[in-house]
Amino acid sequence: MSLRVAILISGGGSNMVKLVESMTGDHPARPVLVLSNDPEAGGLARAAALGVPVAAVDHRPFGTDRAAFEAALTAPLAAVAPDLICLAGFMRILTPGFTRAWAGRMLNIHPSLLPKYKGLHTHARALEAGDAEAGCTVHEVTADLDDGPILGQARVPVLPGDTPDTLAARVLVEEHRLYPAVLRRVAEGNRARLDLASPA
Ligand code: GRF
């Protein structure tokens, strides 16, 4: 019986694609839904092309009522009964009520070496600070933003002349390696922290 994984996206879904593509063969998990808060998210078409059921709940009609938006997410999620939710480029802040309901069963990838640079604009902040390295983190989602137990990290060097975009592109390559590796470990019942070695 495979572990049922729902993936939440807001945009292009490059991390979602890597997660979906990894869940084949003897992998103990399978994707059961890709769900977006933006009906126009490019990742929805990419997920459909990979044969994964998709759904969208536009967050805009709910305004600032985050709980109402999350209640609207409950129907498409309940329809597929996921064992695990992966946030992958999902750009909405979730309420403590939602994160509590999914405690231990919801992962996120964040483009910094947490606990450094929680929140947005992580690459610009790392460059501003003159950091020698940057990277990404997969963590369990808790009520506090970008703050849950770390399940994995991957590091990249900051290079002379880097801009937020060049650094983001270098980190994204590692996100695409790290998230599938951590998902497989979690699906196998292993939550030990993974520090991904730099590619040879
Ligand atoms: C990635 O940098 C991810 O870390 C952040 O959103 C960006 C785009 O992700 N959360 P994706 O291409 O939509 O997966």
Low-confidence stretches: none
Q: What is the N-to-C succession of helices and strands?
A: EHEHEHEHEHEEHE
- Which CATH C-level class is it? Alpha Beta
**What compounds sit in this structure?**
5-O-phosphono-beta-D-ribofuranosylamine
Biggest beta-sheet profile: 8 strands, mixed
What does this structure look like?
This protein is of the alpha/beta class. It has a single domain, classed as Rossmann fold, CATH 3.40.50.170. Helix content is 34%, strand content 23%. Strands 3-2-1-4-5-6-7-8 form an eight-stranded mixed beta sheet, sandwiched between helices. The longest helix is centred in the last third of the chain and has 24 residues. The radius of gyration is 16 Å and the shape is globular. 5-O-phosphono-beta-D-ribofuranosylamine binds next to helix 1 and helix 6.
Topology summary:
Elements: E1 3-9, H1 14-22, E2 29-36, H2 42-49, E3 54-56, H3 66-80, E4 84-87, H4 96-101, E5 106-110, H5 122-128, E6 133-140, E7 150-157, H6 164-187, E8 194-196
Helix pairs in contact: 1-6, 5-6
